[in-house]
Amino acid sequence: xxxxxxxxxxxxxxxxxxxxxxxxxxxxxxxxxxxxxxxxxxxxxxxxxxxxxxxxxxxxxxxxxxxxxxxxxxxxxxxxxxxxxxxxxxxxxxxxxxxxxxxxxxxxxxxxxxxxxxxxxxxxxxxxxxxxxxx
Length: 135
Description:
With 135 residues, the chain is of the alpha+beta class. The chain has four helices and five strands. The protein has helices spanning 7-14, 40-64, 103-114, 117-120; strands spanning 19-26, 33-34, 72-75, 80-87, 90-96.
């Protein structure tokens, strides 16, 4: 989990009626934190998939002149998934417990939490490259 100790933010969201779990996702596909109901391995997979969906939604938005993505909603047979920007270089993935939940209530709670961007953001990760020896 996170070195920032922000799990309690996500736990508050998990307490919202109809929320199954939430994952904080960095733009690079890593998960700085997630709610306790979710095993780490599943949180990591969801984080990787979420970053891809978010990138695709932003590309679609640019192509169609949408003006920026506020949230991404995917309705499945058994639940609804919601992705919202959460802070610097992060987004929040929320999965509901069923498709019949009050998605407005959940969306409002997720956006309220995401408004705590100072706590949820992460710095851009920079990898140090190894320079090739001169030819």
